[in-house]
Amino acid sequence: MTESKILLNGIDEGIKTSVYTRVDGPESPQLVLTSIQNIFPEFDTDLQIQEPNLGKPSNYEFKQENVSLNNFLSMIRKQAILDTALDVLSINLKNNSTHFQILRQAAIAGKVAFNLTEKNPLGGVIEIELSGDDLETWIEAATWHKGRDTVPRRIHDERTMHNDGDASTWH
């Protein structure tokens, strides 16, 4: 018997999504856009993009709402970082809304890496905001994996990583 999986994407489940990043100075707007599209393939912009050159730095804001999380969720499954995602997506959870950041340098390589610092790291970040009724339950379902049958996890449980990314159970 095969196991059927229900894959979530956020859009069809009442979750409002917003993806945003700012491009300035010598950054290549085309590379930044590619990094976003590696994680969120449906992300598109109507902006006329020009690469920076001497005396004309980049100055763009890329933002789109109602972006599907399907590819993002698939990537964190493949990378086996669902428990980390559970913790990161819920660190700022308040009143059915949350926000988190992923690194653009990892995204350009087709990987998801979360930014857990207040600083803007080299290469910049992509900011993601999620909101919707019962968001906590949705996050737990979206990051669920078979291992939770053996080691159950919940948002803000005793196994939640510290805000700086250190494991709470491996010290």
Report on this structure:
This protein has 171 residues and is of the alpha+beta class. The chain has one domain: 50s Ribosomal Protein L5, Chain: A, CATH 3.30.1440.10. The chain is built from five helices and four strands; from the N terminus they run E-H-E-H-H-E-H-E-H. A four-stranded antiparallel β-sheet has the order 2-1-4-3. It is elongated. The mean pLDDT is 86.
Features:
171 residues; alpha+beta; 50s Ribosomal Protein L5, Chain: A; 4-stranded antiparallel sheet; 5 helices; 19% strand; elongated
Radius of gyration: 17 Å
What is the second-level CATH architecture? 2-Layer Sandwich
Q: Strand tally, please?
A: 4
Structural class: alpha+beta
Percent helix, as a range, is 25-40%
Summed up, the domain count is: 1
CATH superfamily: Ribosomal protein L5
Give the rounded overall mean pLDDT.
86
SSE string, helices as H and strands as E:
EHEHHEHEH
User: Which shape, going by the Cα principal axes?
Assistant: elongated
Task: Please identify the top-level CATH class.
Answer: Alpha Beta
Q: What distance separates the N and C termini?
A: 40 Å
Strand order of the largest sheet: 2-1-4-3
Please indicate the percent range of residues in DSSP E strands (runs of 2 or more). 15-25%
CATH topology: 50s Ribosomal Protein L5, Chain: A
